[in-house]
Write a structure and sequence with these properties.
The structure holds 2 protein chains of 2 kinds.
Chain A (H helix, E strand, L loop, with lengths): L16 H26 L14 H8 L1 H34 L5 H9 L8 H10 L4 H10 L8 H27 L2 H9 L4 H30 L2 H5 L6 H11 L6 H24 L21 H30 L15 H41 L5 H10 L5 H12 L14 H25 L3 H9 L4 H29 L3 H6 L8 H9 L5 H32 L3
Helix pairs in contact in A: 1-14, 1-15, 1-16, 3-4, 3-7, 3-9, 3-13, 4-22, 5-13, 7-9, 7-19, 9-12, 9-17, 11-12, 12-15, 13-22, 14-15, 14-17, 14-19, 14-22, 15-17, 17-19, 18-19, 19-22, 21-22
Chain B lengths: L1 H21 L5 E7 L3 H14 L3 E7 L2 H10 L8 E4 L2 H9 L3 E2 L11 E2 L2 E2 L8 E13 H6 L20 E4 L5 H14 L1 H12 L2 E5 L4 H8 L4 E5 H10 L3 E4 L6 E9 L5 H12 L1 H6 L8 E2 L19 H5 L5 H18 L4 H20 L3 H15 L5 H4 L2 H8 L8 H30 L1
Parallel strand pairs in B: 1-2, 1-3, 8-9, 8-10
Antiparallel strand pairs in B: 3-12, 4-12, 5-6, 7-10, 7-11, 7-12, 7-13
Helix pairs in contact in B: 1-10, 4-13, 6-7, 6-13, 13-17, 13-18, 14-15, 14-18, 15-18
The chains are: A mainly alpha, B alpha/beta.
Chain lengths: 568, 442
Amino acid sequence: MTAVSPLPRARTFSATPGQIALALAIAVFLLVFLMLPVATVIYVAFTEKGTSTFTLVNFYDFARTELFMRSLWNSFYVSAMSVVWASVLALPLAYLTTRFAFRGAAVVQTLGFLPLIMPPFVGAVAMQLFFGRNGSVNLLLDDWFGFKIDFMEGLNGVIFVQSVHYFPFILINLSAALRNIDRAMEEAAQNLGSSGFRLFRRIVFPLALPGYLAGASLVFVKVFDDLATPLLLNVKDMLAPQAYLRVTSIGIADPMGYVISVVLIVASVLAMWLSALALKGRDYATTQRGGGGLAQRVMRPHEAVLGYGVVILILALVLAPHLGLLLLSFATIWSFSPLPDAYTVAHYGRVFGESSLYIKNTLIYAALAGGIDVVLGVAIAYLMLRTKLIGREWLDWMASAALAIPGVVLGIGYLRTFYGITLPDGTPLAALWITIVLALAIRRLPYALRACHAALQQISVSLEEAAENLGATKARTVRRIVVPLMTGGILAGFVTSFATAAVELSATLMLVQSNSDAPLAYGLYVFIQSAAGRGPGAALGVVAVLLVAACTFFSHLIVERSQKARGL
Amino acid sequence: MFTRRIALVSALGLALATTAAHGQAPSGKVTVVTSFSKDVTDPIKKAFEKAVPGVTLEVQNRNTNAGVKYVEETKANNQVDLFWASAPDAFEVLKGKKLLTAYKPKASGIPEKIGSYPINDPDGFYFGFAASGYGIMWNERYAKANKLPEPKDWQDLAKPVFYDHVSIASPARSGTTHLTVETILQGEGWEKGWRTLKEMSGNFRSITDRSFGVPEAVNSGQVGVGIVIDFFAFSAQASGFPVKFVYPTVTTVVPANVGIIANPPNKAAAEAFIEFLLSPAGQEVLLEPGIRRLPVNPAVYAKAGADYPNPFTDPRFQKMIGFDVDKSEARTAVVDTLFDQLISFQLDALKGVTKTLHEVDAALAKKPNAQAKALADEARTLIAALPVTEAQAASPELRGAFTGAKEKGARQAEVESQWASFARDNYAKAKAKAEEALKAAR
């Protein structure tokens, strides 16, 4: 039972009628709520201006336009570099907190997760206040030493902000994977004389590779598709901002925005496919579940100092935006100075009355979306890895493609597809809050899917075979064996979907029909637009971050408890 | 307090009168799509719901372009009563697509024109309720630290001292910036206006994609100077930010508008909202610190502070240019795309050559040199060159490329690509000339 070996017994199962029905149900859901709305918009990319004749001339224009080709290259470069830097931030945190008996591991995991839930707009405002050209750091540097550092300039600025923002994808998936590694593997290697870095490099990291790649491919695709960060840093020559600028400023008469969207989707699916290819033909599953995760070694004093030092340093860097946001929420005026002029709690007073509504909406929407996502995620991962259904990869690709669809495109697609469908009382389907939930679920599905997929990849088929040999039905096996063993991965997926859905804005902005249906991110967007609203906006942002952080913390506690209960 | 109460009562009376005329009392929910921030909509919502009991105002916040698209996408089953935003262009677009309903407001005391701009749409599809002018705001702390002088006019921003200190929103994304750009083009003429714009742009720090990105950057001191609509600066001042604002000589004052969407679900309440906005009570709300817009009812200025700009008495406003909204509408897409292709997406190249030209000027100031000056002038001419004439900009052929017209013509992407390479080549040539000039001048 070597760790990484060619898969000898792959896919011994064949499809049952139940699995076929499940696959069809998922396919219909994805078709109606993802492919159809997007197709109504993407259709524009393949038609001639003003007519509905099929044409590829728009793609020819894309390839000939220097700006677009430069944007394509910049997007690849920035995404790749962000994966590198995000790994540098995530690896030590994940390894130290899972490998060692690390006091406050749940706290570190939660804090390390926070950057992901920085609401749009305020996050960049807070980053600017600290690291911008005239942010605290640069004003002080200039005062003391007479120079400034361009943290936030150009492509490097985007890489900096994106690495800090998205590294939790790697952290959370890698941590879940590390927890799932069988202690016996490590002990066997140690008995054979391996230890230290060699042990990590040859045994631990390869076994955690599915988790790492799941996270890394998410970072890559997310950065590739993200438009808020480059836009806020005024970097326009990247693909996603180009798509957004074209779609919103000129509209349907101009097909190029939709052409860029098609390119984005193709690139994302390609990235996912490559990461799947890297894992193909290797077996990451281990059967012996009794050990429950890596042995947690107690650190020697000098190791502890170093370990905690590294963790604190990384956390300080990645949490700087949150500190900035917190300061801003208490600041009266903060303008061209290292710190605010004075402090007040008035902003919290102003948002307090309204935020309860926003909080309630956000919790409902994000929880429903996260729930839908893990159910779909587990189902798709199961069909992918445990059945031979024809076209099961298509489900995976379809779901992954959702990652690359700009929120605004999905929003317009939903309006266009569902606005004409009315309920008996005349309200359009698209005007109901459930549409927001569906849009959020679709947008976040790839996160949950990656996490569930990675978790299932680590579970040996033989455990299910054993259960079935003992007389359990397939459904019962899934319920009693597969899902419990995947708990860590499922929770990782749920938390990622939930937390990021809680701060999603771009699709929401198109679909929110009334203030009483609005989630936090929308309220924040409305506040932050004016000078007097900056403080209350930051206060609402702090509320959002605390809220999601609390949910994250509890889910980590649950994961730890469940692992302990299983005999750690 | 007492006067405000009278105003409220009279507004109420007005609202009642309006509804009496229609024979039904407004009630229920009235939905408005607006680009205005919460600081503007909250006080107005509060005052309106107090003045017209039984009606609740539902605010949907969308930026102007997204709002227009939203109304367009949902017209088959419209659920929105009102559109409420600054840029008159957006209302022209809605009107052109037959997405607005005509109405005749009953409110009195509002003149025909503000500055030289008619307050209401002549066909009665939308109405001005507040005015705003365009100008320059700057951060005093930033200006002091970087030793920037106070700018007075657009051309000042082209001076070397402002290099890398100025910010603007892209006219393609911000309706108000589009009006600023169009104002400069109409005030100075097509050729000279573009020259001014490009000379200013050579000093730009950034071109943002949201209107409020500019005041935000100036307020926090990330950028020193911003080209904005006046109330962004006034409301920031009222919140305590160390910022100042000036109207340049070539500027205009235009109304911010409200209009009823075609086929509104609650027409009576939509009309009541317009009447309220135009009533003295509604106009007074505009003076609040978080809003600071210029009311269109001259009488209301009596309640404003002494230093509150009054476009009806202030001579600066009388001199402002007459803004031709038809001219603007005819070439909107062309102007915005020209700005993006010649300036936004070529900003690094434009800044590079501008910086060298500033150095040439500095060298020439110390030691005059005719050859260097001639070379620098050649470079400036290359920068100012345009790929299209004013007549072409408004021509049906070019408009067709941008509006998705059925007739076969150039595709938008082709046109853009041509303009981009025109700008790139010209800036590269200009850069070579400028470097030559610098060598000669030193």
